[in-house]
Amino acid sequence: MKSRIPVVLLACGSFNPITNMHLRLFEVARDHLHQTAVPELKLLCGADVLKTFQTPNLWKDAHIQEIVEKFGVVCVSRTGHNPKEYISGSPILHRYRHNIHLVREPVQNELSSTYVRQALSQGHSVKYLLPDAVITYIRDHNLYTRDSSWKGSSTQRSEGKTGWEESASPQNSS
Q1: Degrees, nearest 5: CA angle 34-133-23
Q2: Number of neighbouring beta carbons within 10 Å of residue 29
Q3: Angle, alpha carbons 144-148-154 (nearest 5°)
Q4: Long-range CB contacts for residues 135-143, cutoff 8 Å, separation at least 24
Q5: What is the C-alpha to C-alpha distance for residues 160 and 139, in angstroms, rounded to an integer?
Q6: What confidence tens digit (pLDDT) does each residue in 4-56 have?
Q7: Cis peptide leading into 170, omega within 30 of 0?
Q8: Which of 28, 99, 109, 123 has fewest C-beta within 10 Å?
Q9: Which segments within 47-139 are labelled E, that is strand?
């Protein structure tokens, strides 16, 4: 096996809750960097985060420039986003485009933390969308339910239905 160069990836985002596709970002980015022999520290993000570089007053231009100039970005594709357009539409990103690695995720998905929170708040199963340990943590801490302290935009649930009885019990795990 070919020796691999050390890769350090720093990711930003809410990861709230973390999904299997969030974890997949790291795998896809690592594989890409190993194939291109680019060691170093890089910001790892999905194309949706790259788009936020253009959101007024969210990022300081000096911070964006420091990230892309000094460290670089590994941007993984996401359904409904066009990272090439985001790069060409930003003078800073365009100037340092040589330091932005665009990586295509072969498993296209539309999974988002927002969807997961909404599904949980409605009592729907999230099995196979999240790592089992994350599902257990959410259940044990009563997160994303009507009774929890989290108050998202969609927290309506059927009365008396928690969603955990159907989705987390061993007899229904197939």
Answers
A1: 20
A2: 23
A3: 45
A4: 135/167, 135/168, 136/168, 138/17, 139/164, 139/168, 143/17
A5: 15
A6: 667 777 777 776 777 777 777 777 777 777 777 666 788 888 888 899 999 99
A7: no
A8: 109
A9: 73-76, 100-103
